[in-house]
Specification:
Radius of gyration: 12 Å
Number of helices: 6
Structural class: mainly alpha
Largest sheet: none
Shape: globular
Order of helices and strands: HHHHHH
Helix content: over 70%
């Protein structure tokens, strides 16, 4: 059974964040996750959920990158200001 694209992208973002050192890949996959239908709030929630499993440093690295990308997408009208403020 195939997962919906939105779910698959959220899992991809979570795994890349947990691995650490994958900022270039996250820079591509976070916007792709938004295009697949996820909200900025959902991305932040998935990344926040990683904290006890992946550790605070990896989680914070991913959260700060997500915040930067969400803010940039807000400027382009692709993300609501509420999504960008999720973090």
């Amino acid at each position: 059974m195939q997962q919906p694209l939105e779910t698959a992208q959220l899992v991809t973002v979570a795994v890349l964040a947990a691995i650490g050192g994958c900022e270039a890949q996250l820079r591509a996959h976070i916007p792709a996750t938004l295009r697949a239908g996820a909200t900025g709030t959902e991305i932040i929630a998935v990344l926040t959920h990683l904290t006890p499993y992946a550790g605070i440093p990896r989680t914070l690295n991913a959260l700060y990158l997500a915040k930067e990308l969400l803010a940039a997408d807000t400027d382009n009208g692709e993300v609501t200001s509420e999504d960008a403020q999720a973090f």
